[in-house]
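Sharing a chain and its predicted structure for anyone who wants a worked example. Both blocks are below, sequence first, tokens second.
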Amino acid sequence: MTISMFQASVPRLINALNNLSHILDKAQAHIDAKKIDASALIQFRLYPDMLNFTRQVQIASDTAKGVVARLAGIEIPAYEDNEQSIADLKARIAKTIAFIQGFKPEQIDGTEDKDIITKRGEKETHYKGMQFLLGHAIPNVYFHITTAYAILRHNGVEIGKRDYLGNP
């Protein structure tokens, strides 16, 4: 049986982003209950050379929208990266989910061997569609969501594995 690239991407990414949004609800409740400065939480990083909470959410969003757009062969929408609050981050996630939900199976299925090229600075990385989806994009989304989760947990937000996994 062959894997459906659509089923391996769109529903999984939507689920992960919905779970992240739920975790952000708990973060906002924590901020409100403890009367803490929200910027202290959203600017927090686990280690000085790591990206802060806001960037973790932004990168998870960017990777999710980027993989489906690349597989479908359409332009990736650019977001401004100007979020300053939990509400702003939730709006970004909602916008990303709405974008991803717009894809149909026929746009994604059959892209297993599609050439995908990413660029970081001058460095190009070449992938085939399935390799990009399963070996790069999905793990990258989960990495950044996990790091955002760890930042919140480290700061006392009462979240657990069930919040992270949601209802797959």
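Comments welcome. The chain has seven helices and two strands.
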